[in-house]
Amino acid sequence: MPSLTPRQQESKDAFVDQRGVWSPLWESIARIDPDFLDAYRDLSMVPWRKTHLDAKTKELIYIAIDANATHMYLPGVRSHIQAAFRAGATVQEIMEVIECASTLGIHAMNIGVPILTEVLTEKGLRTGPAELDEHQEKLKEDFTRTRGYWHSFWDEILELDPEMFEAYTEFSSVPWRNGTLGPKVREFIYIAFDVAATHLYKPGLKLHLENAIDYGATVGEILEVMEIASVLGIHAATSAVPLLVEEAEAAGRPLDERPVG
With contact defined as beta carbons under 8 Å apart, do 175 and 100 qualify? Predict the structure, then answer.
């Protein structure tokens, strides 16, 4: 790869100094548009200039955003696992984040079952919620005790599909029963992937904001979670610009090529 120009090197040096990392992905951006890389660096540094969340928690939040099923940006997962280790995270803490992120699929039920009940009511196949039986009441009690809350969007799932609800309760409760992260940090993880541009799940976001505040979260902490989630869009550039560099070089096109006229 050709040497960087003084301007490109300046952009790289500032990035490494402030972010503490560098990779060929960032280098490809610096080679074509160092001004863009500088602007991203400033955007991404907003939560790092604040001290509401410690470095380890920030890195765990990045992992949750990159690893969840609506994004699965593996270069970011690897990079932030490495950074989390440097910040003092353990293997089990990172695994706990991944376990929390793995619960996202239940939102198919959270969205789908209420719509199903609407359709059933409209077609005269449902007149209202049925009374819970003893087993369903116990499932509700177990969920509330383990997860620390109850929300109305679970009501119809528990009523219509107690088998799925029971299995999900066991699945989602593993980090709550066996994990070492505090409940507030777990709520930050849920907030991060619910608010991310690849998901934007409003009911879960509101619920987990309420839970986080109940666990003592501050506005500053929550905003830092959202700030971290807000830089997800840069993955358009880290995914596409290396390909642009490869194809430009294969076609013999200079990376500083400008329109003629």
Answer: yes
- Overall number of domains in the chain: 1
Of 105, 101, 106, 26, residue with least CA distance to 65 = 101
Burial class (CB in 10 A: 0-12, 13-18, 19+), 186: buried
144: pLDDT strictly greater than 90: yes
Report the distance separating Cα 254 and Cα 219, nearest Å.
47
Give a yes or no: residue 209 inside a domain.
yes
Question: What is the domain-level CATH number for residue 122?
Answer: 1.20.1290.10
Which domain covers residue 71, as residue numbers?
Answer: 46-250
Q: Is 11 a domain residue?
A: no
* pLDDT tens per residue across span 77-132: 999 999 999 999 999 999 999 999 999 999 999 999 999 999 999 999 999 899 99
Our measurement of the distance from residue 70's CA atom to the centroid of its chain's CA atoms, rounded to an integer in Å, reads: 9
CA end-to-end span of the chain? 30
Instruction: State the DSSP H helix or E strand holding residue 111, giving kind and residue range, or none if neither.
Output: helix 107-122
Using CA of residue 55, residue 57, residue 61, residue 63, what is the dihedral sign? positive
Put simply, whether the predicted model's pTM sits higher than 0.85 gets the answer yes
Q: How many CA atoms lie within 13 A of 156 on its CB side?
A: 15
Return phi, psi of residue 20, to 5°: 75, 10
